[in-house]
TrEMBL record:
One function term, GO molecular function aspect: xenobiotic transmembrane transporter activity
PANTHER family: BLL4319 PROTEIN, PTHR32063
Entry keywords, A to Z: Membrane, Transmembrane, Transmembrane helix
Pfam family for this entry, one: ACR_tran
Species per Swiss-Prot/TrEMBL record: Eiseniibacteriota bacterium
Domain of life: Bacteria
Protein name in the entry: Multidrug efflux protein
Length: 131
């Protein structure tokens, strides 16, 4: 006797099983939590360094490039953006989705501290902010 023969011989059983499956499916749909805008934890860390009196090329060469190099080696980074302007360097670090922001912030602070002595003495200490 095949499995399908059981339902062919007993149509009431087939209807009851179908209704149980339908009710279980409807109950599952009701209990499924869906958000219109799901929560995502995309963090951005900004490293800003002032170098008063330096033009954009000097800032890029002596501040932005060394900082970018060490920050890029940190874990959990999706991508970096940087800009160098008259007297200021800004590096924006975009972390991977739902990556531990505290771990990334700590690691970036340690990496910046490693290269701090290589920066020009006239440059102010880099300011690291979590957004």
């Amino acid at each position: 006797m095949k499995f399908t023969d059981l339902f062919v011989r007993r149509p009431v059983l087939a209807m009851v099983v179908s209704l149980v499956i339908l009710i279980a499916g409807l109950q599952s749909i009701r209990s499924l939590s869906v958000r219109q805008y799901p929560r995502s934890d995309i963090a951005v860390i900004t490293v800003t360094t002032a170098y008063v009196g330096a033009n954009a090329d000097l800032v890029r060469g002596f501040i932005t490039t060394p900082l970018e190099r060490v920050i890029a080696s940190a874990d959990g980074i999706d991508y970096l953006e940087s800009s160098s302007a008259q007297g200021v360097s800004t590096i924006t670090v975009h972390l991977k989705l739902n990556y531990d922001t505290n771990a990334a912030l700590t690691q970036i602070q340690a990496k910046v501290a490693q290269v701090r002595n290589d920066l020009p003495p006239e440059a102010q200490a880099p300011v690291i902010e979590l957004e």
